[in-house]
Amino acid sequence: MYRYRRILVCLNLDEEDRTVIRYAGMVSRLARSEVVHFLHVLKPSELPKEILAKQPILQKPADSDARVLMNKRVSEYFDDGLGINTSCEVVAGASPVIEVLKAAVRQDVDLILVGTRTATEIPSGFAEKIARKAHCSVLVVPHGAEAMVSKIVVPTDFSEHSADAFDVATAFASASDLHDIYGLHVYSIPGECRITAELKKDVGDLLKEYAETAYGNFIAHRDLRGVSDIPVIREVDHPTEAIGEMVRDIQADLVVIGSRGRSAAAAVLLGSVAEGLIRATDVPLLAVKNKGDGMGVLEAIIERLK
Question: SS in 3 state form for 119-150?
């Protein structure tokens, strides 16, 4: 593990934070991270000014109390002897997504770690929005996920972004002393090729043969760090559902996927698939991006909302 030297962890100041902090501890140890920065976005009070004026206790700055609680929880899972610097920050803002993105740029992080929660304080689609707009990789951790990695699934469409995901997955596997990872490629038969059963079978056979050859060529150019790959090639109608089924079939506990991909006759693995997986799977998902991807767009969004 070498990519994630600086990590940003989003906290909501509820009991579900413990899952995210534990997972951040595991990842930072595997990656030998230098800095883990914890962030809580404090939303403005919705109480009328008249009520705030009558209750002085409500006017007390909440950021100091929040920072104390954050430091206390972080210290439970981060040992000073590990050599990882930790810091806690509380910022105020009406848009948690924008504040997280701004902090990621400000802290120059390589990875954002965010949990998926049932708490009403978290906006709908929060994790998906972060994964879509961030300038770096994003690791989404469902509530209750164990801080361990034993089986990794890497969906691939043989693109450059899939290659990046494979590199990160093998680094995770090597650091976790795993012997192998599962490389999953899915393909669909176009509608115009389903007119007859015979045509569907012929085209299906050709697509499978192409996928097997392309997978072999793809793997041949990867440095697997001594980790073996287990190829899985499936014909499917819905890539997101197929990946979820694969995760359940082998009881995987981590999915690593490129956040962008390419369209081809053999496969469609785009950012929308990664976002769909965030909603559909109950295991951690790492959406891999080259740091800085989309930075111009991100800066424009932040500037517009200042």
Answer: CCCCCCCHHHHHHHHCCCEEEEEECCCCCCCC
277 and 164, same structural domain? Answer: yes
Return the ∠ at Cα 158 (arms to 135 and 137), rounded to 5°: 20
pLDDT tens-digit map of 35-92: 999 999 987 655 555 565 555 554 444 577 888 889 999 988 887 666 889 999 999 8
| pTM given for the model | 0.85
Strand partners, 235: 187
Q: The tokens of 235 are what?
A: 């014909």
Please report the pLDDT score of residue 276 as a whole number: 77
Q: At what angle do helices 295-304 and 126-133 cross, to 10 degrees?
A: 120
What is the Cα–Cα distance from 209 to 125, expressed in whole angstroms?
38
CB 11 within 8 A of CB 66: no
- The residues that bridge with 180 in the sheet, in sequence order, are 228
Q: Are residues 170 and 89 in the same domain?
A: no
CATH number, domain of 85, equals: 3.40.50.620
